[in-house]
Structures are given as C-alpha cells and as structure tokens.
Amino acid sequence: MGTNLIGKTAEINGFRIYYEESKNMEQRQTLVMLHGFLSSSFSFRKLIPYLTNDYHVICVDMPPFGKSDKSKKYFYSYKNIAETVLQLTDTLGIRTFSLTGHSMGGQIALNMMLHHPEKIKKAILLASSSYYKRAKKHHVLASYLPFFSQFVKHYLGRTGVIGNLKNVVYDQSLIDRTMIQGYAEQFEDSRIFSALARMIRHREGDLPEECLRKIQTPCLLIWGEHDRIVPLQIGERLVQDLPNSQLVVLKNTGHLLPEEKPQKVYEQIRKFLNT
Predict the structure, then answer these.
(1) Residue 2: which pLDDT band, with cuts at 50, 70 and 90?
(2) SS3 at position 2
(3) Which residue, of 39, 52, 84, 92, has the greatest Cβ tally within 10 A?
C-alpha cells in the first residue's frame, strides 16, 4: 500500500481487524474499500493515490485475509463479515459512507446495503461476485475433516500466486515481483488455510435476485471486458436486478480492475460520487 494510508488495527467482538486509513481525514466524503477473495487492501494500492485527493479512504482487510485475524472462532459468513465492517465504521464514528467492493468485496457490500441501507450513500461494485451458490453439501461436510485445511493449501498451491494472477489480469506484463509478493504475503501465515476451510463451511451463497431487487442504494458497476473470473454477463445480469444501478465496461481489462486500470476506475468513481 502506498504512503497515502496509515495501517491501524481495531478489536471488533474480540477479533483483530486490520485497516488502512488516509492521512487526510478531513475530506467530506468517506469511502470504505473492500477487497476480493484471496486478496487484501494491497489490491487497491494503485487506486488509492487518486482517491485520497478527494475522499477520506478506509481500506479494510476482511477476515481471514491480509493482516486481519484468521481465528478458528470467527464465523466466516458474508453476513457476519458485512456486520464486522459495519461495526468497524461505528467504532471509527462514521455514520454514513460510500462503498467500493471488488469481487467478493462487492458481495459483502451488497449484504451491507441490504441489511443497513441507511448507512450506505452509494456503492461502486468492481466485478462483484454474484449469483454463486453455497458450497455443495459434500464440500461442507468435508470441511469438518481434520486434514481439510491441508487439502485447501494443496488446492491453492496447484496454480500458485503467479497462476492465479494470470487468470485475473488481462495484460500479463503487469505481473511483476511487487505484485507477486503482495498477494503471496498473507499465505505465509498457515492459519489462513483452516480459516478458508471454515469459510467454505460458513459461506451462505450470494444474494438471490429477490434480495438484490430490494436494494435501492445507487450502484455503479464497473466490469472488465475480458473478466474470466466473474464474466461480463454477470455484470449485465446484475445491473438488471439492482433497481438503481448503471454499468460501465472497461476495454482490454480483466478481473483485477484496481490494478489494471486504476486511473479509469478512479475517474468513474469520482464522476459517480460527485453527481
């Protein structure tokens, strides 16, 4: 993460949550940033220098990712993660704010808008995870096995960080040592694999259409034309189900929009929030 943010921690219900906050906290609008699956606040490092000129920015490492707790006692459902983020904003004295959620972070943002619409002014969903079902029953049952965390570690290790990055980035030349190290760092703590096993068990699936249609918060959907993780068809479907939404498609872009097109993403965010 760049020098525009300061790393901090807060204890929420006995769990340590790591977040990074812009040095200039006097900006009128607060923007809370939520990263994607197997990621952390690191994924916003290229976007942050643009945003901190205009907004009070808070990037949250959602458990069990980044530098936040990877506890075996935490309940890793989307609804609970959303509640944890909301409790963090309460702790910081932030009554209302806008949201930016990338991939899984977009689904957390949708949960926050559904259950606490009074707190969210606007939301920017960057290739938001949508319409994924809960894990199959045999996978949920398998997650209780003592060795399952080792299976998760082996499964993720098959492609490795570089392989995963190649799947999410359209322009492969963007993958450098800094990017590889930044995404690999959290896996040095072996507790993340047992936490991921619990997430498979706890994750309740993405919000169904009937819930999405209840969300009235203004939403900007930004998608990469060549997204192979959450394809553009998902964005086209989501903009139909969210009553107050619009979709912007970035050409020659994959899934990792904050890394691939930070300036273009910023321009769209600024235009949307200032309207």
Answers:
(1) very low
(2) coil
(3) 39
Lookup: tokens for 121: 């002014």
Q: Which residue, chain included where needed, has tokens 């944890």?
A: 84
User: Where are the alpha helices (H) located in 116-223, listed in sequence order?
Assistant: 137-142, 148-168, 177-184, 191-202, 209-212
pLDDT in tens, 217-267: 999 999 999 999 999 999 999 999 999 999 999 999 999 999 999 999 999
Measured CA to CA, the distance from residue 87 to residue 95 in angstroms comes to 11
Flag whether the pTM goes above 0.90. Answer: yes
Q: What is the dihedral of CA 170, 40, 65, 116, to 10 degrees?
A: -110
The class (CATH top level) of 5-134+205-274 is alpha beta
Cis previous bond, 64, omega within 30: yes
Residues noted as catalytic: 103, 255
> Sign of dihedral through CA atoms 97, 101, 105, 110?
positive
Terminal Cα-to-Cα distance of the chain (whole angstroms)? 28
CA atoms in the 13 A half-sphere facing the CB of 269: 31
* Dihedrals phi, psi of 102, to nearest 5 degrees: -105, 130
Both tokens of 209, joined, read: 């259409």
Residue ranges covered by each domain of the chain: 5-134+205-274
Residue 98, sorted as left (phi over 0), alpha (psi -120 to 50) or beta, turns out to be: beta
Q: Phi/psi zone of residue 249: left (φ > 0), alpha (ψ -120 to 50 degrees), beta?
A: beta
CA distances from 193 to 18, 61, 100, 148, 160 (A): 19, 16, 26, 9, 14
